């Protein structure tokens, strides 16, 4: 009997977060340990110097953070909703061409789940590095996420 495959985290993000689809983001790797998302070079999203607009880079990084959060905590969606609480981004170097965001969780999954199990609303950081094709870091972002328990 054939089994239906579940949608990938990238497919889920594109379906539930329209902005990710609008920017044509490519979810190339998504695990609970790391998410890698690419913003292709697209003139519609360029800034005044011909590189990706700061808003597009912010969305790229935030989308990578969301992908890792879904990969790490997607099995908790019946009891809690993941929400970004705050974010800070530093633009380091001029970005030109395609850029890649790599996200990593800042706390162990088990630690976050232990707080959720204790009835708390855990917060945890996700750190994202944005690089251009030559490997230079063009930006860094830190997003604080929470798992907000559903009302009882």
TrEMBL record:
SUPFAM superfamilies on file: Thioesterase/thiol ester dehydrase-isomerase
InterPro entries on file: DUF4442 (IPR027961), HotDog_dom_sf (IPR029069)
Lineage: superkingdom: Bacteria
Pfam families the UniProt entry points to: DUF4442 (PF14539)
Official protein name in the record: DUF4442 domain-containing protein
């Amino acid at each position: 009997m054939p089994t239906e495959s579940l949608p990938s985290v990238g497919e889920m993000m594109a379906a539930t977060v329209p902005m990710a689809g609008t920017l044509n983001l490519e979810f190339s790797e998504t695990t609970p340990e790391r998410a890698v998302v690419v913003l292709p070079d697209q003139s519609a999203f360029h800034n005044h110097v011909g590189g990706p607009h700061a808003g597009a880079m912010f969305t790229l990084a935030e989308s990578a953070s969301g992908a890792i959060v879904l990969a790490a905590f997607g099995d908790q969606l019946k009891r809690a909703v993941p929400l970004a609480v705050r974010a800070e981004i530093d633009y380091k170097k001029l970005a030109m061409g395609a850029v890649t965001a790599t996200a990593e969780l800042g706390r162990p999954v088990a630690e976050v789940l232990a707080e959720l199990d204790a009835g708390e609303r855990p917060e945890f950081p996700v750190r994202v590095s944005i690089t251009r094709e030559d490997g230079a870091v063009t930006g860094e972002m830190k997003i604080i996420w929470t798992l907000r328990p559903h009302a009882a």
